Amino acid sequence: MNLLFRKEVVSLALPVLVEHFSSSFLLLMDTFFVSKLGPRAIASVGLGTYMFWITITLAQVSVIGTTVLVSQTFGSGKTREVRKIVFESLLLSLLLSLPLLIASRAGIEFYLRAIGAPSELWSDTESYLAPLLMSIPGLYMSASLSASLRGIGDTRTPMKIGLGANALNLVLDPLLIYGFGPFNGLGVFGAGLASALSTYWSFLVYLIVIPSRIGIEPMLPRKETFLKLLDLGIPAGVERIAMSVSYSAYVSLIARFGSEYLAAYQVGLKIESFAYMPGLAFSIVSSVLVGQSIGSKNMKRAVEMAWESSKASTIAMSLSGLALALTAPMTPKPFLKDESLLFLATVYLVIAGLSEPGLGFSMGMSGAMRGSGDTRLPVVLNLISFWSVRIGVGYLLGYVLGFGVFGVWACMAIEVSFRGLLFFLAFRKLFNRRVRILV
């Protein structure tokens, strides 16, 4: 039976992995194209990306809520109810995105001051964010429709749409950054514009394919559905906001050592994004399969799916971490020419490679807990681990004990191992008691 479960887990995870892998490749190509504008452009786009991550975290309110509610409803066999939830989730995503778009546009300067960004990076960061932030509504609604499809076990359609959007972005990047024919290049503004245009293209494609893949039933939104989506999604949204702020605090620890350390970290982080893609894929699949099992009232299957997804995530992340560490001296070379920056990026990637197994296990377990309807406990575990170890011990090693940026980076590997242990203990002791059946 476990072999059958593993096949189901892997078959659903592979399309998600391909989609995320292509997105990471696209981020890497963004960095590659921007790198030709100089180290300042690399660092500025990196800072802008962090702010963008913060602004899109509320998308998780509808994404997590939709994934859990659709998967449990689909598991119970109520297909018409699924179509209603698809529409209500789409509407909720739009309502969440509009005020956030306004607030984020007004908050760029506050963000740059808060993280202590060097003043020479402000102009390029603002230029990059100007078009990128305009894509927030399209991104929120696309994410909602993607979550609905994954909730019924369709991970191939979001993969195909994601690949198409990434291909479009890959074409637009050099054209808009450097220009073509009589048109002048737009620099980092062009990089942000390429991403925004690709986002709205994917949203239009989702609108075309959703009726035939899952169906959507327009209706007056029901208060009870909104409340369920919000009750499930708000903890996840709070977690993403808190973790985005937490990562910004971590970046601030690095940025204060100087822009060269930040540039090396940004390149290393983009390369590392390939390594943690398997964890993201198995986390999503874990939520879907656990949710469907609970919707069908099969608790034994839910527990087995949680374990199988988490084990598969750990194995895949261990292999990707090993590859990341072994290739660390080579992978930053297309992006960094300075030998000192290459050395810094190499050290970061070796440390990052060591951190992947613990991160993989915690991501798998976190997805399982969310699929069970428990979206609160992962918030607590992630934040306790991050602030006590990565920030607290990282500051101690980096600044108090004088290990510098290497001490800050080393705490990353220590922290994710500690996080994996927390999730293991929580699952063993609390999972069955915290399950919520929503349909």
How is this structure best summarized?
The protein is an all-alpha fold and 439 residues long. The chain is built from 16 helices and two strands.
What structural keywords apply?
2 strands, 439 residues, mainly alpha
Fold and architecture overview:
The chain has about 450 residues and is mostly helical. The chain has one domain. It is built from 16 helices and 2 strands. It has a two-stranded antiparallel ribbon. Helix 2 (about 40-55) packs across helix 11 (about 260-270), helix 3 (about 60-75) runs parallel beside helix 7 and helix 6 (about 120-130) runs parallel beside helix 9. It is globular, with a radius of gyration of 21 Å.
How is the topology of this model organized?
Layout: H1 2-35, H2 39-55, H3 59-75, H4 79-106, H5 108-114, H6 122-132, H7 136-151, H8 156-178, E1 179-180, E2 183-184, H9 188-213, H10 223-255, H11 259-272, H12 277-295, H13 299-326, H14 339-371, H15 377-400, H16 404-430
Antiparallel strand pairs: 1-2
Mean pLDDT: 87
Instruction: Assign a percent range to the helix content.
Output: over 70%
Sheet having the most strands: 2 strands, antiparallel
**Estimated share of beta-strand residues:** under 5%
Computed CA radius of gyration, to the nearest angstrom: 21 Å
Report the end-to-end length measured between terminal Cα atoms: 27 Å
Shape: globular
Structural class call reads mainly alpha
Number of strands: 2
Tell me the count of domains: 1
The strand order across the widest sheet is 1-2
SSE arrangement, N to C: HHHHHHHHEEHHHHHHHH
How many alpha or pi helices?
Answer: 16
**Low-pLDDT sequence parts:** none
